[in-house]
Amino acid sequence: MSQTLHIAKNLASRYPWVAKPFLVSAPMRVMSGPALAVAVSGAGGLGFIGPGLKTQDTLADLQEASSLISKSNLLSTAFSTISDSADRPLPIGIGFQLWNDDVEVAAKAVKEFKPCAAWLFAPRDGQKDLDSWSLEIRTASPQTQIWIQIGTLAEARELIRSSELPDVIVVQGAEAGGHGRARDSLGLMSLLPEVADAIEGTQIPLFAAGGIADGRGVAAALSLGASGAVMGTRFLAASEARISRGYQREVVRADDAAVSTVRTLLYNHLRGTFGWPEEYSPRTIINKSYLEQQEGVSFEELKKRHDESQKAGDHGWGPEGRLATYAGTSIGLIHEVKDAATIVRDVREGTAKRIAALGD
Amino acid sequence: MSQTLHIAKNLASRYPWVAKPFLVSAPMRVMSGPALAVAVSGAGGLGFIGPGLKTQDTLADLQEASSLISKSNLLSTAFSTISDSADRPLPIGIGFQLWNDDVEVAAKAVKEFKPCAAWLFAPRDGQKDLDSWSLEIRTASPQTQIWIQIGTLAEARELIRSSELPDVIVVQGAEAGGHGRARDSLGLMSLLPEVADAIEGTQIPLFAAGGIADGRGVAAALSLGASGAVMGTRFLAASEARISRGYQREVVRADDAAVSTVRTLLYNHLRGTFGWPEEYSPRTIINKSYLEQQEGVSFEELKKRHDESQKAGDHGWGPEGRLATYAGTSIGLIHEVKDAATIVRDVREGTAKRIAALGD
């Protein structure tokens, strides 16, 4: 337990405003914007801004987050222990998709705004890219901690042999929505403890991601050896998410993810997104595009119908829709849109209740 | 919480010798024999005997378990609250594969030996078969509680609409070894809480199965809403398991289940097992038979090589082997063979430690 206590103490000193349990909103591309990240951090969690359509967008997002934070006084209270306000990092994180983001622009953004954490994901060239990004980000902003997301035991083993050790490892289970491991994913129930055993002794905290949407999942993640829990899909149904209403409505409506979601590259391709490293494939809620592909409709025809559907606005999502609806297996646990602070507080209270019940 | 307490109280009265947390050894076909089941129950868990090659074998297994139990005095201590010893059920359970087992022989066995629980799994005709089996077993032995294993939300919803409500629902996640849902399985992290919500108000306890091998997994299962945890693969590495040494050695050796296991019907077919309902497919550790199938070797040739491999005894398993090695995703958490009582005690202590740490 001394390792657990050491890790908890270290996290508390690096993220002093974060309450227990340590709750994180995932850096979902575009959808996790400044308003969501700041609201989550403001409620005692850690909010991440997701990658933008291009890395340059990250500068604008960090600028906006910075100004939201100044207005809210979150900056001074979050890092009040740092006497010189110029040295205080931003109490939000920023995410990068390594294969698609520009490291120089990223370093410039991080240097200018000093987010407290940078979340690195999906390198084109594995550990080599993770190492060079970690080095660039740390050089640009020593206050910025490096969070690295992995989805396999093999990645964990390689990561802890690196000279650029991350500050936090996020373990993404097969349950996760959006992009995750295409063929070698595994449920958190086994993956998390196996990774925990593999990195034992490194003192690096593990965060669990995938399939978690309430206090039950958070308590389970902590049981399995995580120091905190990351939620993505739950925050797609936050009022601050940068998401179309039709998409959000579908996240609330759908359930039974075993049959209503699938990992497929189809929607990437329909949206014109190509080039993801082949290790990854996104989980999405199934709609007409996928069903008709299964029936044998040609890509050209699906693309035509998809693009037509885009003009339908919010009606482009849902069982009769055709647009990408990336989401995780927790969709059946999400029944309403709430503001992010309420989500953080509800999950925090739910976790405490669950842990208290376990102790009885 | 009152529902949780009610369920816990009810379980304690039906299984009075079982300590907390409620740990169960799964009814693995043939491999969960009388010695394993009695050892688990003797250590304060609930041991299940698995289905036999044919239902008739169940009679012999129950006979043997009954005699082991008499010798150990477990019978009288387990159900000491029941004054007439003739009314005392056996403090072990028995499992049936509905599509393959004979309900009349099963009912006869249950009537003669009164196991405290019958675990029903894999009906050919869904809820209809579950209902008729439940009725037959209850008629044959009113002391025998009905445990039903499901793997999907849809099954849970159908189950609680039945007039033959089960006494316990076992929720099997995608992580499980051996036969589970072929195409619509889901990780326990999301599946268990979603099923818990779907059956809320029924007062039926949920048990979690799949990917659990130590106190971390058990604490996680309880967090997600389970009243107890079932372990299969962990007990394949029990000294009492009815398993070849080569198979057992492979369970201990293998890790990283995301890449070292797969769901495939190949090994069923190599063993001459046909006829499983199409909803199911077994998870197995990958060896040469599967790899060569992927390379395009014909079934006839694979079958020839497989049958040859059978003559190699314990060398038929392992990375160079060709024999079926059904196992779950927890293989990376299992590092040694222990006797069943030690497994039960270690997992119990591990769970208590983990829960205590959560409370800090």
Question: How would you describe this protein?
Answer:
The structure is a homodimer of 360-residue chains. The first copy, chain A, is α/β, with parallel strands linked by helices and 360 residues long. Chain A folds into two domains: 2-244 and 334-359, Aldolase class I (TIM Barrel, Alpha-Beta Barrel), CATH 3.20.20; 253-330, no CATH class. Chain A contains 16 helices and eleven strands. Chain A has helices at 2-14, 34-42, 55-72, 74-78, 103-113, 126-140, 153-159, 188-198, 215-224, 233-236, 245-253, 257-260, 266-270, 288-294, 299-310, 340-359; strands at residues 22-25, 46-49, 90-97, 115-121, 145-150, 168-172, 178-181, 206-209, 228-231, 261-263, 280-285. In chain A, β5 (145-150), α7 and β6 form a beta-alpha-beta unit. The first copy, chain A, is globular. Chains A and B meet through α8, α9, α12 and α16 of A and α8, α9, α12 and α16 of B.
